[in-house]
């Protein structure tokens, strides 16, 4: 187990900046997901922690000890980290047992201890009995388990996982997510897990670090990211929130924010000064009421899709052309139906500069 500190890290490939000053503190024993769209720099940050890339500037510490910084670089093999990749990277000509044993043999671990550590790593991932199979004779999920067993057999102090479930189908992904949680609980090892799938990050991690264009947008618990997104990017990327332009009037005595949405006054929560703002609405913040219900905002049902137990209802607001809101309902309304909306919750952000300029 170990902590990781990334301090003011920058990295460029040629003239292209890929990390633009990243500060991230990962606690000992934490399960942290690095989440962001393709190309935002997640893998690069993971490879920097592993020592597989060199920093442009900044510092990386593991358990307080500088791994890379001005005048210092600790080789990857001396960092005692484990890595698991999307591609599994198993040796095709070796059995599962040999694949898991190989790293231990390279480290000079004696044969009896090797055998015992291989057996317990394979048992931990549920592969006991498949020791003699070659990787080609395993399913995708079993291959990923073998790669994980190879990693944990080495007892690394941190496990770095780069989209390890990306090649699996939805059902297997879900089962493996539960395996990762269990292994994390049982080993107490620090896990850093890269993914571009927000639902995976939310399901797995203690905290999620959201990246965009080489910068961290927000680091927090899944609940905090969902309920109180710090930026419009986080609001849109995590939980697919609708973002609507509002005017922030001010804070009421009870602490809520008074805002105006398309001329309709509502109370919400948020972190925005008076002026133009953005209201982030999740499906569970939206209540559909009959058309023209007093104190509600007119809307029209655009599309309805069944999601198992409830309907996802896509709504358009005549007063705000170009914007859509999703609500969740137990009974399906008719597409085209006129309804009205009330809001329970939501989160208000200061509008980004571009929206402010438009509103001015
Ligand atoms: N070795 C390299 N040489 C040049 N450019 C690179 C190299 N590795 C990564 N990049 C570029 O750096 C940027 C960040 O890449 P990175 O792999 O870190 O992103 P990512 O967020 O992990 O994306 P993905 O989810 O698609 O894997 C991308 O634009 C990528 O093309």
TrEMBL record:
First-listed, main subcellular location of the protein, grouped into a coarse class: membrane
Keyword Hydrolase listed: no
One Pfam match: ABC_tran
Keywords carried by this UniProt record: ATP-binding, Nucleotide-binding, Transport
Residue ranges occupied by any ABC transporter domain in the UniProt entry: 4-238
InterPro entries per UniProt: AAA+_ATPase, ABC_SmlMolc_Importer, ABC_transporter-like_ATP-bd, ABC_transporter-like_CS, Mo/tungstate-bd_C_term_dom, P-loop_NTPase, Transp-assoc_OB_typ2
Bilayer disposition of the protein: Peripheral membrane protein
Molecular function GO labels: ABC-type transporter activity; ATP binding; ATP hydrolysis activity
SMART domains membership: AAA
UniProt keyword Nucleotide-binding, yes or no: yes
Origin superkingdom: Bacteria
Family designation: Belongs to the ABC transporter superfamily.
Name this polypeptide is given: Iron(III) transport system ATP-binding protein
The species this protein was found in: Devosia enhydra
């Amino acid at each position: 187990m170990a902590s990781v500190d990334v301090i003011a890290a920058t990295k460029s490939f040629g003239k292209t900046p890929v990390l633009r000053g990243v500060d991230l503190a990962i606690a000992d024993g934490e399960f942290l997901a690095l989440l962001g769209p393709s190309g935002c720099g997640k893998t690069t940050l993971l490879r920097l922690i592993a020592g597989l890339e060199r920093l442009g500037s900044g510092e990386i510490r593991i358990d307080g000890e500088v791994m890379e910084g001005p005048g210092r670089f600790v080789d990857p093999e001396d960092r005692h980290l484990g890595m698991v990749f999307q591609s599994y990277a198993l040796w095709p000509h070796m059995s599962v047992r040999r694949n898991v044993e190989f790293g231990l043999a390279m480290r000079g671990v004696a044969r009896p201890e090797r055998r015992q550590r291989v057996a317990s790593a394979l048992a931990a991932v549920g592969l006991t009995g498949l020791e003699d199979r070659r990787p080609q004779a395993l399913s995708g999920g079993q291959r990923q388990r073998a790669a994980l067993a190879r990693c944990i057999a080495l007892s690394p102090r941190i496990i770095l996982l780069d989209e390890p479930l990306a090649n699996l189908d939805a059902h297997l992904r879900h089962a493996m997510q539960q395996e990762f949680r269990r292994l994390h609980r049982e080993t107490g090892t620090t896990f850093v897990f890269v993914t571009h799938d927000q639902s995976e990050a939310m399901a797995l991690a203690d905290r999620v670090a959201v990246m965009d264009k080489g910068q961290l947008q927000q680091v927090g618990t899944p609940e905090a990211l969902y309920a109180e997104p710090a930026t419009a990017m986080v609001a849109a990327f995590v939980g697919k929130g609708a973002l609507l332009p509002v005017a922030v009037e001010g804070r009421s005595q009870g602490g809520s924010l008074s805002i105006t949405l398309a001329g309709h006054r509502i109370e919400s929560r948020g972190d925005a000064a008076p002026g133009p703002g953005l209201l982030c609405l999740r499906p569970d913040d939206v209540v559909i009421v009959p058309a023209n219900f007093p104190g509600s905002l007119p809307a029209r049902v655009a599309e309805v899709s069944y999601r198992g137990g409830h309907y996802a209802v896509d709504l358009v607001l005549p007063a705000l052309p170009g914007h859509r809101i999703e609500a969740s309902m137990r009974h399906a309304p008719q597409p085209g139906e006129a309804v009205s909306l009330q809001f329970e919750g939501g989160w208000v952000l200061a509008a980004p500069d571009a929206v402010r300029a438009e509103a001015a």
